Structure formats: C-alpha cells, structure tokens
C-alpha cells in the first residue's frame, strides 16, 4: 500500500526550529531546517540523529527545501549540511538564497562572539552550505530527479517566502512554510492554485485568531508611536532585521512624510543596509503598489530612516529605534531595552510573536521585574505594547488556503498544541477531511491511492467516441481494448493493435446457437419472415438479407435450414462473435419467442 | 453600361434612399470599375494557390461593399467556397459572409440556406465555428423572422455535440442570441421550444471544457438580456459552478447568480445540511460574498462589483459583510465605539491586539460555527483589504451603493470607509472620499473618525485634498470640538497649501451654514474677542482670517443671536466681504445696521419671481412689435438687450436665459440695422463703404449664432431651428453684400449654389419644425425655391433682398433650463512679474488649472489656446484624463501646456485662453431624416470652429538664447 509518511523533527506542536521529514512514494524530503530561539543548548537544532541512525544523510534525503529565510526555518542549515554532513541539493527561492547567509552570519556572530560558544558552525561553513543551494523561482517546476518534482508558490510573509508543492507521480504534498493571506504594506497575499494535493502541511501560528482589519492595526500603531514621540518619549521596536521591519519602516516612513515629523528614526546597523539592498532588488516579490511605483521611487529607499549607532541610545529627546532581534532575547534590542526600560515615558512595541522563554514573552505576559544575567534585576517601567504585525495567516486565512488548494488531508505544524487542537476540530468539521497534528518525532502515515495513468491510443478513443454520444461525466462507459503493461507504463490499445504488437495470431471466438422454429413453409420464406420480423424490431441496427439466403444483423449471421427429421420445423442457425455477445444473446432470445403469425 | 449606371444614380437621388458618405465615395469608384463582384471573381479565378486566394480575400475585405452588390459577391464567394479545398480560405470566406450579411440594406435571408447547406458538409471545426458565427450574424440581422430563428436554433442544437470546443461555443452563443423569447410566442408548442433552449444551454453547464461552460453561462446571460425570463432551477446549477476550477467560469457564474437573484429575490431556498430556509437573494448574496475571497482577482472584482447592486438583501445579512466574526456571534451588536474595547474579546477568536488573549476559551456551540461557509461574513472586510487595488475600488464602490440605499448600513460602514482614507493607493483613497461624500446624508461623523478624515488634509495630492473639502462641505459633525478641529485642520491646510484657498473657503461656508448651533459657542474664541478689552483688529487680507469669517457669517445666517457677539470691526469686515466675496458671504439681517441690510436687499430671494416675470414681459414686448417704425424697433431692442444683460448679471439663476435671449435680440438688431442702410440700391462703387457695416454685421451674426448653439447647455431642437434660421438670414445677407460688391457674375454662381444647398439642407434637417416657421424668411424662401433654382444669381440676390426685408421676427421660445458655458482660469493667475525663463528651442511646462461650468462633453470640446506676442497661436488638446468632474455640470481642467519659442531679447507676455470647439455637423444626426439613409450633402456648416469662452490670462515668459 503506498503511503505518505510525515515526521516533524521540529515545529510539531511547537513554534521554532521547523524541520519536517516527508516520505512520499519512496522519496524523502526535508522541509525547512530551523533553529529554536528559546534554547541555547542542543535542543536548539533538530535532532538529526533520528535520520543518521540509518546511515548518511545524503543517502537518505533526496532534497532539502527551505521555505523562507527566518532563522527558525533555516538556522540549522550550516550545522546540518556541514557538521552533520549533507551533500544533496538544497532548494530555496532567490531572495531567500540572497538573504539567508546574512542572517546566518549574524546568528553565528551572536552565538560565537558574544556568547563565546564553541563547536558552532563557522563563516566558511555558511559559505560552503550556500554553495549547495539551488534557486527555485515562483511557479517554476524543478525536477529534483526523474520522479520527484517541486514547485514554488508565493506565500507573502517575508520577502521570498514560498510554499512548496512536492510531487511524485500523482501523489503530492504541499508545504506552506509560513504564509500570510492578507497583503501588507510591502508584500502581497499568499496564493495557490487548486492543485488538490494528498496532504497539505500548513503552519498554524494563529490557529485561534481572527485578526482585525490591518488598517486598524496600522492606525493604532502609528497613533501610539506618534503620541509617544510627541510626549518626548523613545520608542523601541524590536524586530527581526528582515520582514516585518521593512513593512513597519515603510509605514513609518510614509507617515513621517505625511505628518511632517522631525523625530529621528533609526534602524540598527549592519545587516540592515545589506538587507534593504536586497529588498530594493527583489521588487517583483513585493506587493502591487511597490511593484507599480518603483519606477518613480523605490519605496525601500528611505528618506527619514537612518542607521543606528550605539551612542544614539543615550541621546536626549524622542526617537524611534528598530532593533534586532525581535524577541528581545539577545543583541542590540536587549541592550537598548535595558537602557530605556526604567523610564515610563518610553515605550516598547512588540510587533510579533514571542517564543516562550524570551524576554519579549516575559514582559508581554505582564512580568515587571526581570532577572537578567548576573543576578541583576531589571524593573520595567516603560509601556509595553503588543501589536500583532506578524504576517502569519489567521484562522480564517488558513481555512481560505485549505479551500483554495482542496487537499485530501491537512497536517498542522508550527503552532501551539492547544490552539492546534481547536483548529483541527474546525477543519475536520468544515471540510470533512482528516487533520493531523503530530508532535516532534511522531510519525503520521497516510495511505494514498495513487492513480495510475494509462495511455490510450487515439484511434481507439476516436472509435469509441464515434460510437456513442459525447462522454457523459456522470455515467461510466464501457470500452473494449487491451491493456498492455510494458516497462512500467500502461497503454490501452485496440485488440488488433495489441495482437500486432505482441505478434500473436487472432483467435476468433464464435458462438453458435440453433433455434427451432415451427414453420411449415419453405426455407426461403422463413428467412424472409425472419428478416422482416427483425427489421421491424431492430430499427437501430443494420439488418440485411443476403442473396445466399442468409440474414445478417450487424455481424451476426442467421441461416435457416430444414430440420432433417421434421420438415415442419426449421432450424435457424445463429452465429456471432465474442464481441457481439450482447446483441447475439438478445437475438436468440428474440427468435426463441417465435415469429409473429404471418398474415396469410 | 456607364449610361445605365448614371441613370441609376439619378434615379436613386430622386428616390432619396441612401446612406453614409463613404458609400458615396465607393459609388464614384463603381463608375470606373465594372463591378466589385466581377473583380473579385476574376481575382479568385486567377488565384493559383490557397495562399493567393487568401491574399485576394484579405484585400477585398478592406473595402466596403455597397448594399446592392452584396448578393452578387455572396454568390461568388459561395461558389468558391464549394470549390475550395483549403480550410483557411474557406474560413476567410465564411467570415466574409458574416461581414457581408451585416451590410445595412441587405437582407441576408437569401444566403441562409446556402450557409446551412455548407455547414452540413463542412469537416473543419474552425470553419464550422466561423460558419456558425456567420449564421449568428444573419440571425441577428433578422430579428423578426421567427421561422429563420427556429431553424437556426435547430442547426445550433445539432452541432452542440461537436467535439471541438469552438463549435460548441458558437452554438451556445447562437442559442443565447436567437433562442426564442417567450413574449413573442403565441402558441403553447412554441413555448415548449423556448423552455428547451434554457434546458439545452443548462446541460452544457457541466461540459468538460471550461470554455464551453463559460459560453453556456454567457449564453444564459444573453437570454436574460434579451428579456427571456430565466428559470429558477438554474440557480442551483449556477451555484455549483461557483467552485469551478477555472476563473472565467466562476466569474460568469457569479454574474448568473446575481441575475437570478434579481429575478427571484423573494423565493425561498433551503440551506443545505440544515432545515432552515432563506430568501434566494440572501442566499445569493452570501454566495457572492464568499467569492470576494476567491483565488482569482478577476472573480473578486466581479463579485465585489455585483454586491453593490443587491439592494433587496436583508439588513442583517448586509451588516454581516462588515463583520469578520462568526455566525454564532451575529446576535451581538457592536457599535463602533465599543469596537475597540469589546471587539472579539467575547468571541472565541482573539483579535491579535492583546498579548495572550488568544488562549482558546470553551468551544462555542460547534454546530452553528463554520469558518468558510459563513457566507456574507466579512466580505467587505476582505474586499477592502485585498491585495489588488482593483478589488478594493470595486468594494468601495459597492459599499457606496449599498450605503446609499440603507442608512443603517451607512452608519456601520463608516469606520471602514474612514480606514480606507489611509490606503496606499491614491485612487482608492480618492474613491473612498467620494463615496463618503455620496452617503454623507445618512451619516454623522464622530470625533475620532473626523480626526482620521482630517489627517488626510495634509495629503500632498491636490485631488485628495479637494475631494476632502467637498466631503467636508456636506458632512454632519456632531460636536463643537469637531467643528473646531475641522477649522484648525483646514487652516493648517491653508498655510501648507495656499493654492487651496478657494476650495477651503467654500468648504467653510457650507460647514458654517450646516452647523450654526455648534459654531455659536466657538465664536468668541474664533474672533478672539474679549468681554472687556478691545483686541487688535486682524488683518483683512489674511486668508486664514477670511476663512474664519466665512465660517462664522454663514453660521450667523440662521443663528440670529450670533451677531451680538461680533465686535465693531467684524461688522466692517462683513460689509467688505459681502461685497468682495458675495458668493461666500450670505446676506445677514444685522440689528441696527440698515446700511448693510439695505444694500443687500435687492438680491434676496423673494425678488426672484418678479424678475422672471420681468424677463418674460420684456421679451414679449419685443416680439409683439412687428410693425413699429424701424427707429422705434431699434431703440426698443437696444433697451431690452441692455435690460436683459443687466438682469443676467443680477440674477445668476436667470443668467443663462437672459444672455441667450439678449444674444438673439442682438442678432436681430444687427440684422435690422444692416437692412436699414439707406444705400442698398446705390450702384456698386458707391456702396463699398456701406458694405463694411453690413458684412461686419453678417459676420457677427454668424458668430453669435454659433455661440448660441454651442455655448449653452440645454438648448432644445426648437431653439436650434431658430438659431439656424438666423444664421441662414445672415448668410443671405452676406450673399447680397457680396453680390453688390463684387463685379462680374462668375463668382456668384458658386455662392448662390452653395446658399441654395444650405437652404435645402435646412429644410431637410428641420422639416418637422417647418410648420412653426410660418411667414418667416425660410418659409418664403422655400415657397420660391423652384424659381430660385432656375434663376440667375442676380435675380436670386434680388429676391433674397426683398425677402429679407419682408421677413418677420421669429419668436424665440425660451428653453426650460439653459446655462451658459463658462470657464475661469485659476492658474496661471497672470499676476506674476517674474518671467518664466527657459532656453529657447526647449519647452517649458505651464500648469493650467481651470474650472468649467456647464460644458457638455469637455473632453472633446475644450481646447487651450496660447497666443504668442508675434500673433502665432497654438491650440492644445488636453488629454481626457486631465478633466475631473467634481459635480454635476462642473468640470475641472488641470493640465500642462508646453510653451516654446525662439529666443527673445526681453520677456513678454503670452495669452492663454480656453476655447470651445464645435462641429455643427455633429448636431445633424439628431434629425430623424438621416436614419432613413440619406446622405447629407457636404455643406459649409460642417466646418469646425472655436469659440473663446474664458478670459485670457497673460503669462510672462522669457525664452533665453541657448548658451554656446
């Protein structure tokens, strides 16, 4: 029984270190290879030993697909490919390919230089790893090998995020990665065609949320920032360098321009410039507005937003700072946060999801006293706001995507177990399909019934078409032919052709049947009577009276002979081939009933 | 042959059944060529290969074929069709047949048999499809012939089983266009046939080819368009198509569902998988709403657009469209105020606004909750947030239409519209501002909404700001803080963009007059008066101060207690503003200020009726005096003209009528004056001096008549007759004058003939109105027409002269509503002393901003003229997109004019003015005459001309020589 097996190594009933193994029709694919923000030990990377216990990674995996450049989707890649050892192809979209190494390098720096970790991947490893990457463009179908093909769809979320369809023969799986069904200031909405996969693996970060209109959110955000700045306070917006940050930048930039505000906006340094550069380049991956106006002005060329220097944090007066990373767990954002936390005029706006264990999560859940490294206790007096700018699909969006793709089964990953449970129930109820939510390391097995394509020769098809009316979608039609199975492909051909191809002689199978008729008249007359009788009944068929004294109905032959013993009885010999079985048996039963009394 | 043809041409002329101009041209061609059909025949016979034949056919198709030779051509084509083996040539022939059968004046029933015949023997699918197309052309050409229609429908049904989608498409199209209509059916049997058509088409809703499915739906829509009542059973079929894989099918299905929902809004349909039943229109509404979140944006646009026109939908369904929450939460009402607090906090889903509020609470009654099929839920929320601005615009439009018909919905959708003011695409913002203006009667803005609205005043786009001003003109504000806020923001806007001055003043005028009671408590603050101390008198020229005063004075109009709060200088400023900006400052009844109030009195409303009366009387007086002595007539006319002109100035409502009549009288006066000249009979050499006056008069009359005809909107046919009549008289005058001044007869021949042609033309165009022109110049002229045709020019002139003198003064019936087109150039203001410098040979762009009033179709008529000091004039045709339409009868032209010239030694002024282009032949097709196919002779009146209709503005420019 063919089946699809899915095992999440990460992101199963959890957010972070997405890594899902999929076996489909004998092919093994790894979807994403991320790290977990909440851990600093071995748990931050997926447990690849699950795979390696059977030998080398490269032998087992046919390919690795990275959906987008967020570290929880690609953070473990160098470790996986260089340290554990994988030499197969890694697929990602061009923007991901461009931006991914920047983020990995940044991550490495924080881990090695700041925290002084040993046994971490090196810059060279990142470079080597990126050499194994193959770029996939939107809607491009890439043949990984003869059977396995993958195709990318636009997913919104961040620049270059894609959903992937993995297809082997007629079996397919769609992996959404992270996606967003509502467009934002810089990206469009996710879109997929009605590809009807066997399985849809979807993220479910916001499984229980139906978000308010994004316009309200934008307005609220701008209002809060504006008010704080007018009060003279400082606004800290922890972001991941790429993704939301750019959306918020565009938002603030246009707002600043419109309201003619003077307070400086800073963006924490280094990687921003490089990253913004890529945003400027990959215009085709952005939304309608930016795509259409970039000729006049590229929206990512900011006028009001400047690079941040560490010294600026102590400057007096209002300012807005975007700082990395987004969950306040390390780096510059945490430094600035510590400086500003004491002043109630200031504000921190968390624009997205925070993983449990991070400072961001703590302050959002209302903790006012934080224990920092070295037993320091930090009192948080500044205002803490949460503004959901995470570009994940909400419950309605997930349902919408399921409706668009029409899969047979749905599998939820990248979300919290409790919330998943709720959405799972909803999906099962509405779409009447099975929904799964495996935990990490748990395997889901789906039986599939792959359809086997059979080629039919055009001649045969046309002949069948000609026989009846148009094929009706609702009614099955009987079609006679010979199925040839050769070199693992199937063909349906007419029997003559099959015989010819196989070099076989045709054997004719003929049925004959004698029908006794009481008729005193001459044979000729009996034949005439049979002829006229059949003619009157079988109006649709071609009934012929041949000169040699026999009657044919289509290809069925009827001959009459006098009974050798009883001259009053005529024997009708009915003979038909195997193909005409239906008509032949009908004819005999008809003749057995006897002829109508001739008007003498 | 030639003689025969010539004869035929004459025959036709006397029969007077003919067509357009191009036919005339081809007719000439025919005289030189033997026959079109013959030529084609020869060509086709010459063709050696299919490619050749195709080339000939293509060439042939470029020229039109006259009606009488169509049949011959068709025969030849058919003949070749039978012989032809190449499918592409047959295809071309089939398409030509279709084209030819569309020729007006040709009845295609004779080729139908042949077409059906060849259809039966045709093997190529493409040719089959083309032939069916031809049949469609034939069928549509003969809408009355029931038998033919039935037959064609039969043919179509027969070919419906074809394997090619193209053929099936065409068959369905044919069925849609020709399937018999129930209303024309008399017997029951035919009624059955009619029902059949629907069923047959309906069967193809499940065809395997999406193109055929689309065609089937389109055919169904076509049936509906032709007045056939669709059956309700289609509804279910159509609903199934909504989940089709192909977007064009879905898009068409949405339309079909909409149509059915309009036909049977009140029928009851069951909700699947439950026992409930709802109205069909509600069900359809829900389904279309669902399509607003379709995968294809084409479908989304379609769905969003259609939503707007579903007005019968129940209000609770309507309100769901603004609600993203689930059905189970429907019972919960939420006002916009509560929204911020209560929104979603009660539901099972979190809003994503507060951290941690999305921990799932208990599962709400699961049976009723469904996320996808909750129909109307949040359709507009989705639509307004769509990725494609086309969808957003469609959604805003739909919102507008629905809100106009439902005040409660209007109130609810306000928040969403206000949100749209911050859209990233300007077009969408503009559209939502306009929408808001349209529904402003039903709504009152709250302060927070007003805040968002006013924030848009800082938008850098002028269109947006002005649209917003328009919006503020007609919004209701609930609190005095709101008014204050609006004023402050508007003043901010004024300082930021001083060019918005007029627009802002106007906006404040309406704001004031709408909210007198809210303005009242603000007055002391606004005027910064103090109970004890005198404050400094503000600067009277400050636009901001004027803006404040406009607001206050307009509020004071209906609030008699307000003037008591004014300080002395305010009254003085009032008097000044009342005079200088009378359109913005209303007349106030001020206590103890008789001077002011009396100055105002003549213009107030009660006087309107008498002035109308006055107008009527003075006109009647003029019309009644036919037989006074010439001197008296002239004087009376002069007086009346003066009166009318003054009246027009005083009474803006009557300005159009008064000016129009005055112009007419002016023409008459000129004519009389010209005819009064004593020296008409003096010999030619002595006459020269006089002719100046007469020919000038003739010229002026012509100009004035053009103005009358084209510068006024609302001119009806009866006025046009009179105007043309006047013009004819002017032309007669011109002819006479020319006859007098020129020596020799030869040039007169041409002129006379031309004039007579014009008379003829006049007669044809206005034959219906001739009875009203008893005793007029033209009436007499037509009586004498046969004689004139044969007379010599000198005689004609004589006759004309006497007739002109005898002709009576025609009464000009006053049109109901008439407005004079006018234009004001706002920018350039013409005040600048700084010349616009640019390098000679290069261009400089000059921004032109003008308002146009009562101009019909400005896109094609309004031109910009630039006159350089050397007399060189340049006409610029503004782009259609440069015209905006802010209100009925008003247009705004914002364009750029490119100037260029060779180098000048010093700066000089160029004049910029607006012109109204006219084309008198454009009016002609209105007469029923032409429809019968008559070719109007090419007359002089079809020439184009322009009328200047704005004051010229001077612009100082300086082309510098290019530096070497």
Automatic annotation (TrEMBL), chain A:
It is found in: Cytoplasm; Nucleus. Residues 245-363 form the Beta-Casp domain. Residues 16-233 form the Metallo-beta-lactamase domain. Its cofactor is Zn(2+). Keywords: Cytoplasm, Hydrolase, Metal-binding, Nucleus, Zinc. The keyword Cytoplasm applies. InterPro entries: Beta_Casp, INTS11-like_MBL-fold, IntS11_C, MBL, Metallo-B-lactamas, RibonucZ/Hydroxyglut_hydro, RMMBL. GO terms for molecular function: hydrolase activity; metal ion binding; RNA endonuclease activity. SUPFAM superfamilies: Metallo-hydrolase/oxidoreductase. GO terms for biological process: RNA polymerase II transcription initiation surveillance; snRNA processing. GO terms for cellular component: cytoplasm; integrator complex. Its main location: cytoplasm. The keyword Manganese does not apply. It holds the Pfam family RMMBL. Belongs to the metallo-beta-lactamase superfamily. RNA-metabolizing metallo-beta-lactamase-like family. INTS11 subfamily. Component of the Integrator complex, composed of core subunits INTS1, INTS2, INTS3, INTS4, INTS5, INTS6, INTS7, INTS8, INTS9/RC74, INTS10, INTS11/CPSF3L, INTS12, INTS13, INTS14 and INTS15. The core complex associates with protein phosphatase 2A subunits PPP2CA and PPP2R1A, to form the Integrator-PP2A (INTAC) complex. INTS11 is part of the RNA endonuclease subcomplex, composed of INTS4, INTS9, INTS11 and inositol hexakisphosphate (InsP6). Interacts with WDR73; interaction is required for the assembly of the RNA endonuclease subcomplex in the cytoplasm. This is Integrator complex subunit 11. The gene is INTS11.
UniProtKB/TrEMBL annotation, chain B:
It comes from the Eukaryota. This is Integrator complex subunit 4.
